Amino acid sequence: MLRNLLRPFILFVVFWLAPTAPAHSAVPEVLVTIKPIHSLVSGLLQDIAEPGLLIEGYQSPHTFQLRPGDLDKIHRAEILIWIGPGIETPLQRIIGQQTDKTVIRLGDDIQVADDHHQADSDHHQADSDHHHLHEDQHRWMDPYLVLEDMQRVSRILSRHLPAHVSTIERNLARLTERMQRLDQDIRARFAGPQTIPALLYHDAWGRFLERYELEMHGIVNPHAHAQPGARHLHDIEEIIKRRQTRCLMVEPQFRSSQVETLQARYELQIIKLDPLGADLPATADAYFTLMRNMTEALAGCR
Predict the structure, then answer these.
(1) Tens of pLDDT along 108-152?
(2) How much is the pTM?
(3) What pLDDT score was predicted for residue 177?
(4) Rounded-to-integer distance, Cα 193 and Cα 209, Å
(5) Which part of the chain has CATH 3.40.50.1980?
(6) pLDDT band at 17 (very low <50, low <70, confident <90, very high)
(7) Which of 23, 123, 159, 222 is the most exposed place for a label (fewest CB within 10 A)?
(8) What integer is the mean pLDDT of 238-266?
(9) Which CATH code fits 192-299?
(10) Distance of CA 207 to the CA centre of its chain
(11) Rounded distance, CA 264 to CA 102, Å?
(12) Longest dimension (CA), the chain
């Protein structure tokens, strides 16, 4: 009788004294800033976890404004992956304050800041920031360049996910095969070096053009954070007349009266190119769909 009366009390004491579960889950929360990179990281983490995406829809990473929900995503993340200040300029300050998490910045000199690497990262931070602001950071426009980034990211993820190393390696091998097929398809579509009779509104495609030996007639707005001057626009109009430009490639993230003026004045074909895949679902397939859509759009200017 006494034993039955004491049983609830004994169970309460046992549960109260038992060690609590760790604050962090077995799989750390991963947050990626833009959709093309999110797509590739999703491929690396397939069958393990689904990374979060920070910048969605038609928001431009150049002018992105953080909302309370975005700040919550950043604070919850344990691993944060971004391109750098040349692309996500508004995020530079808040990301620099994330000293309690692993921050991976893509690039030729890929930066990793966490509890173990913070000192090394801080030592080179000023020089690296200056370098990144002056290089073309649209790295995902070159399949092999961004694949190199993903190889480095996979090694970092493996350190944080030791129980899933074999899955990450398998996913990287699958990603590599998909990237090789993508490269072959793009090369077959253009069949060698050529000039596309088009203007780009924004300078986001240099990596792609260089990789596949393509040339364009020029760039309407070479600086994402400022409008082109009158002299530059005059030069662009001279190019259109001299080289018989047929198309103007525009991005949904940018709106400009200059596009309408040039289209009306010279009867240019407007072709939409979206380097961020705003209309695409945020999946592991998004990057490959984005690149194939862009290839067809560029090849369609004749």
Answers:
(1) 767 787 644 443 343 344 444 444 445 788 999 999 999 999 999
(2) 0.84
(3) 98
(4) 10
(5) 30-185, 192-299
(6) very low
(7) 23
(8) 89
(9) 3.40.50.1980
(10) 14
(11) 49
(12) 102
CB atoms within 10 A of CB 257: 8
Residue linked to tokens 């088009």: 198
- The Cβ-side half-sphere exposure at 158, using a 13 Å CA radius, reads 14
Structure tokens at 156: 């970092």
Q: Provide the token pair at 301.
A: 């200017």
Amino acid at site 129: D
pLDDT higher than threshold 80 for residue 14? no
Tokens read off for 146: 């961004």
Output the pLDDT for position 258.
Answer: 84
* 129 vs 55, higher pLDDT: 55
Q: Distance between alpha carbon 169 and the CA centroid of its chain, in Å?
A: 21
Per CATH, the number for 30-185 is: 3.40.50.1980
The string over 8-47, giving b where at least 16 C-beta atoms fall within 10 Å of a residue's C-beta and e elsewhere, is: eeeeeeeeeeeeeeeeeeeeebbbbbbbbbbbbbbbbbbe
**Model confidence pLDDT, tens digit, residues 173-226:** 999 999 999 999 999 999 889 999 999 988 888 999 999 999 999 999 887 667
Task: Cite the beta strand spans of 68-137 per DSSP E.
Answer: 79-82, 102-105, 111-113
Structure tokens at 69: 């929900």
Here the tokens at position 12 are: 């309460």
Least confident of 8-12, 77-81, 83-87, 230-234: 8-12
